Amino acid sequence: MFAQMKFLTDLESIPEENMATLRTVAQSKKYRLWRVSHPYKKDLVVRLVVWFPSDDAAVVVVALGANKAPMGDIFYDGVANRADAEIDSWLREMEESE
């Protein structure tokens, strides 16, 4: 996960298109979400989902993980919804702190 975070830190601008390491989340409906690629692990899934606010002031990273054996594709199907909820929560916190 350190390499994934370093990749995000090294980005010079908000991406315009998919890259080998950073791809859009197709299931996303509310925000333009990106997922950071990770090495394949047989029974474990960790997904870093990223949202780039338009003001370029911050990057919101949502780390989601699960044991793949019992969850299977259900995990991937719900990633965008869970990330949207976390981003909404972060936005509320930012508004309250202003």
Radius of gyration: 14 Å
Cross-sheet strand order for the largest sheet: 1-2-3-4
Characterize the largest beta sheet: strand count, sense, and whether it forms a barrel: 4 strands, antiparallel
* Total of domains: 1
Query: Given the C-alpha coordinates, what overall shape results?
Result: globular
Count of DSSP H/I helices: 3
What is the tally of beta strands? 4
Report the order of strands and helices. Answer: HEEEEHH
The average pLDDT value, as a whole number, equals: 78
**Helix content estimate:** 25-40%
Distance between the amino and carboxyl termini: 31 Å
- Catalogue the unreliable spans: none
Structure class? alpha+beta
Note the beta-strand portion. Answer: 15-25%
In short:
Helices cover 38% and strands 23% of the residues. It has 98 residues and is an alpha+beta fold.
What does this structure look like?
- With 98 residues, this protein is an alpha+beta fold.
- The protein has one domain (2-97).
- Helices cover 38% and strands 23% of the residues.
- It has three helices and four strands.
- A four-stranded antiparallel β-sheet has the order 1-2-3-4.
- The N and C termini lie far apart (31 Å).
- The model has no long low-confidence stretch (mean pLDDT 78).
